[in-house]
Every structure is written in structure tokens, then in C-alpha cells.
Protein 1
Amino acid sequence: MDEKIKKGLKKAVQHAEKGVTKSILRWKYKKEGKQIPLEDRLEDESRHVADRAHEVIVRRGKNVWNELKKAYFKRDGKRGPGE
């Protein structure tokens, strides 16, 4: 895939993530009966929440990958059953 297209796609996804996160934060504030913060603060909070979500996904993704490798390979390094 062309790098220019890749960057554009990544930027669009990040923008969408921030928008969804901001909507969820607004909903949460409303549900809790709290005043919705100013747009700049809401923007910062949504960026922080999205970044934190990425960290969690990366960490858990590594754990899942390691567990899959353990299940796939036996202790002696050969492939798992059926291979």
C-alpha cells in the first residue's frame, strides 16, 4: 500500500477514534449529571483515553500472541497436534 494512502487512512482512523471517544465522554458526563467540560478539555481527555486504550490493546495483544504460541508449539519446539 502506498505510504501516502497509509498515512491518510491512519489519520482518518485516529480522527474517528477521538470523535467516538469524545461522544462517549459527553454521554458519561451527562449520565452522571456532571457539567460537560469545555471543548479543549474534552479534546484532551478524549486523546488521553484513546491513547490509554491503545496501550491496553497492545499489552493484551502480546499476551494473547504468547499464549497462542505456547499452545501451538510443544516444549520440544515441534508444531502442535495435527501438523
Note: The mean pLDDT is 83.
Protein 2
Amino acid sequence: MLGFEISHIATDNLKAKYKARFTPHTTKEGYLFSHEDYGEGVFCSKEQYGSLVEEFETFVNSRGHFMFWWFILLIVLGSTIGIVDIFYYKLNFLHSKIWKDSWIGSYLMLFPLLFIVPQGWRLYKKPLIVLGSDREFTRSKKPREEIMNRRIKGMSWTMLILGIGVSLLGIYFYLNGGDYPPYSIYLAVGVLLMNLYFAWRKYNIYRKENTL
């Protein structure tokens, strides 16, 4: 269950970060695409935006599901080998030097990323090719507030809500006699306030954009 939640948060953050690069145009029906913190942005029609976002989100969702079930498969496989080894110790597989090497599990878990990461990076860079924005960038830096807004938009609601929930639980357990260090209450309150601030900023950004 924890693995599924981590996978869900990771995919939500990737999708939010991708969509944060597009800002509704103030005068035209479409968006302005910005790849980095520089330049004025390049116009992107609603059709192009919908196509690019759908393609990226479909890829992220499918690969996120694949990685989750890949982890489950490895866990089941490892457990099965362990059970077999208990009854058939003479196989001596789990006791070999190769299997005892803790790195082998990490290699197997991360192996699909050798193929997934390059594919995802090509899709992440695709707007640069489709919109030709790599030729339109200037070296003038965007206003600090605009850069901050884009980065806050790149935070998923799932992550912010989870941060608020976990910090509230920490405060609750501390106030109800939990055996925690004294500084932990300040940490929990700090995390709560930080996530509330980012959630408030994110909400106001979307509300402002939806009125354009």
C-alpha cells in the first residue's frame, strides 16, 4: 500500500511539473509555453496543449503502474525463492555469494528505468520541438514571482495534502502524550505551515489563471 502511495505521488508530481510549464495566454485562446526561467514563452494552441499533456500523462501513468507491479513481482519472486529454499535447503541458492549481495535487489528494481527515463525525457522535451521554443528563448530572466508560481504549480495536490495530513497527525500524537523529542512539535508545525502556504499559493494561482 505504501509503495502504491509513493508511486501515485511521484506520478502526480511529474504531471503537475509538466503542466506548470504552460500558462494561459492573457489575450489569445491558448497557452504560453516556457521551458526554463528565461524568455517570454511561446504560444501554444489549446489543441496542441491537450495533445502534449495527454501524451505525457498517459506515458507517466502507464510507466508508473508498470513500475509498481514490477516491484510487486520482485517481492513475490523473492518470497517464493525464500520459501522454496526453506524446504529445499540443498539448493543453496539464497546462501550463495551473489544472492547475499544486497545490491542485486536494487539493480533489479531499477533496471526498467534504464528504458523508461530516456523515453520520458524525450516526451518532456517534445514541446521544445513541436513549438520551436528552443529558438525563441531569450536570456532575459523571468520575474522572481513568476518563477516561484511555476514551481509551486509543479507541486501536486496529493503531495501537499499528504504533507498537511502527516504533520497534523504528528501534532496530534505529540499533544496526546507521544514519546517524541521536544523539537518534533516545532518540526511538525513548520511542515504544516509550509504545506498550507504552498497550497494557498497554488489555489490562488489557478484561480487567477481561470479568470483570464
Note: The chain has a mean pLDDT of 82.
Protein 3
Amino acid sequence: MPPLWIAIIIVLIAHYFLAIITVYFLMKDKGLTKAIIPWNIVILLLPLLGPLSYWVYRSFQKKK
């Protein structure tokens, strides 16, 4: 198996678990509202960058 395929598989597996944890915390923080729909789309469609962007956003929101 080429190294590129192995890297893609590893990234997608990591994204799967990171996305589940991030969506859990998103729902815990904001509840079930229409405002979380864009965040869900970003988290699920952008591998690794979607969940990381929410965690950065969340860290700045918690400071306020």
C-alpha cells in the first residue's frame, strides 16, 4: 500500500474521533439550536481543520 494511502487513512481516522468529541462539546455548550448547524457542517466536512477551528473559537469564547 502506498504511503499516501496510509497517511489519508490515518488522517480520516483521527478526524472521525476528533469530530465526534468536538460535536459532543458543541452540543453541550450551545444545546440544540439552529446556530450550531454551520459549526456542524464545518466540523464534519473539513478534516482536522474543522474541529481545530472550533476549539480555537471555543478557547477565545471561554475567556470572555
Note: The CA atoms of residues 6 and 12 lie 10 Å apart.
Protein 4
Amino acid sequence: MKLVLASLVTLAAVAPWVTSLAQTQAPKQDPAPKRDAPRREQPWGTEAEAKRIRESFVGAWRLTSVVRGTSSYSGENCDGYMLVMPDMLSMQLRVAKPTTALPGAMLEGFSAGTYRWSYDPTLLKVVIHTALAVSDLEGPLQWERAGAQREYEVIFVDDQLSLVRRGDAEFNFTRIKPRPEPAAPKAR
């Protein structure tokens, strides 16, 4: 009887430790997929997917937010546009952030450029090559070297577009839809 009681007391003392050890060593399961996450129409890396992305990318886009490094800009502190044709794009943006040097003052940055672009289905990224670009986002005005290349992950959700370079920059846009032509005035 003493042996059974001693075993139960030992088991009660060790049980929480064994349970926590089992929980830390158990394989982690992936969380359930989000219900509102968009489903891909085509599998990754197919020519059909590449064609869909190329066609979806073309158009006029309004910049809604920018994340560069640790800085984030949105709302009235962020403005810009991107116009995309089948193989060229033009992007202009202006961002502002408050400065501690002068209360109520803002530090503004501007960037504009024209680029040749393509979608690389093997990288699953939009690749842009600079034709002409200038920026003062990181200090004095700097002209970018023609031919400089950058790669962006491209994410479409309805009429929203994100161009992402992990750990460096994220540009978020909303598609500008054509406005209907005004109705002709009625004859009297």
C-alpha cells in the first residue's frame, strides 16, 4: 500500500513536467487556413498564371501606403501613382513624415521613374529595369543607374496590388477604374 501511495505522489509531482515536455516536443500543426484568403485561380509557376498576372498588372494604380525599412507611410502622408503598360511602367510617389526638429513640420521625400518590366514565372516575381529614375528618399537627390534591376513579389486581391521586396520595401496600390463619360445634355 505504501508503495502504491508513493508511486501516486511521485506521478502527481512529475505529471505537469511530462505534460509540458510533451507539449513542447509535439509537432506544431499549421493553423487553419483563413476563410477570406483569396484562392489562386491557377497553380504557381504556370504560363496561365504568368499571363493572368501580366494582364492584371497593366492599368493605372493609386498608391495607398509604403513601407520602407522601419518607416511606414499612409493616408495624407503618402501619395503617388503607377501607370503600367504591357512592358513599361512609370511610378511617382511622395511621402512625408513628422520631424522632431520643428513642431508641425514634415520631412518630404519624392521618387519618380520609368522602368521596363516583365513577370518571371520561375522567380514568381515582377522584375523591373530602370530606364530613368530619381529619388531623394534617402538624402540628397540621387539618379538611379540605368539598367538597375529589382524584383518584387506581386500580390493581387481584387483591385488591390502589393509590390513587396522582403525586408526592404512594400508598395500598396488601388486600381484606378475608368469613370463613365458624363451624359450628354438633353436637348430642349
Note: Residues 1-35 have pLDDT under 50 and may be disordered.
